Amino acid sequence: MAPIAISPHEQQNVEVLIKRNISQYKEQSAGPLTYNKQSEEEGSDKAKYQNYLPTWEQTQKYPPLEPFDHVEHGVNADATFPELLHAGVVRDDITPTIGTSLSGVQLSKLSDAGKDQLALLTAQRKVLVFRDQDFADLPIPEALEIGRYFGRLHIHPTSGCPSGHPEVHVVHRGIDDKSGATLLETRTSTVAWHSDVTYEQQPPGMSFLYILDRPTTGGDTLFCNMVEAYNRLSPAFRERLHGLQAVHSGIEQADGSKTRGSITRRDPVATAHPIVRTHPATGEKALFVNPQFTRYIVGYKKEESDALLKFLYDHIAYGADFQVRVRWSEKAVVVWDNRVVAHSAILDWVNGQRRHLARITPQAEAPRETPYEGAN
Fold first, then answer.
1. How far apart are the C-alpha atoms of 18 and 13, rounded to whole Å?
2. Is 347 helix (H, G, I), strand (E, B) or coil?
């Protein structure tokens, strides 16, 4: 079952539902109103990677994204992983179901065959953590070329980016920026599970997130295995989910960006995707809903949709035994497959230390559902 672009009339309905507060959207992003140019760009405590500091250019405007043909590089990869798992590599599976740390391999040195292996291993293990990488020190165009191998690079509609490089999504809280604490004035937790920009007709697949500056402690990232989340459900419940679609919307994210004095590079969109999607390389089925961007189930009344989505969100949030928590270290790069993984930043440091990362986000195929296959 293919995703469905939302019509202008349905888009209005989505906006009405948002105003009724049916979503659980949490705005975690800082923006130009909290950016301190002096502390980030001058003095002994200035940001380490000046070329990655965020800019918000109001003149950056882009037309709606057009469909494109995605090539899945994991399909024909060598499953023995000779470039990733050779004798000099130290492998540590962080949990049984999600997360592997690899030391002794440089992402920037992989051949095309090695990149294919990276796509397959990421799909299998969901999250890969690479330590001691040179990724952040590469010229930005070179880092973008690595990402571009895996798909068309997504330009985020609202986030800051390095000057001249809108394909880089910058995650940034500057030194002495304690604006994240305001989230806890109305919330009990900063956790906000999501898969990135699922409102797009072709959401991301492979995602590369790399550290530039970090707090001495805190600011970890949580990841959830959405394949295992699907598999933990009873066969009867899984069967009921098949055939359902849910609307994902970027409208509220765009509205929040305007409120923070930030930008909207494209008009926000809403798209209906299957609740269960199938990965093209592994054939695994995964839940594909998240409280940040999923708004309602198509064809269900509000109370019905709310009840089912709340169960799925709680199932994801409580699933500590199919999650992994990644602690950032200098020069680390985390690669995950956005099609089968949800994640959340943790805004738990309160001392005003800088947290600065960059994300390169290739888009993938439109989510597809394959038929229910019965009990595993």
1. 9
2. coil
241/250 Cα distance (integer angstroms): 23
Q: For residue range 109-129, what is the model confidence (pLDDT) as tens digits?
A: 999 999 999 999 999 999 999
Do residues 233 and 6 touch, judged by C-beta distance below 8 A? no
248 among known catalytic residues:
no
Q: Please state the pTM of the whole predicted model.
A: 0.93
HSE value, Cβ hemisphere, 13 Å, CA-based, for 320: 0
* Catalytic (active site) residue 194: yes
Going from the C-alpha of 162 to that of each of 148, 202, 335, the distances in angstroms are 17, 24, 20
**Is position 137 annotated as part of the catalytic site?**
no
Which residues lie across from 357 on neighbouring strands?
171, 211
Which residue of the set 116, 177, 196, 213 is catalytic? 196
Question: Is 42 buried (19+), middle (13-18) or exposed (0-12) by CB count in 10 A?
Answer: exposed
Query: Amino acid identity, residue 98?
Result: I
Distance CA 134, CA 121 (A): 21
Distance, CA of 196 to CA of 343 (rounded, Å): 9
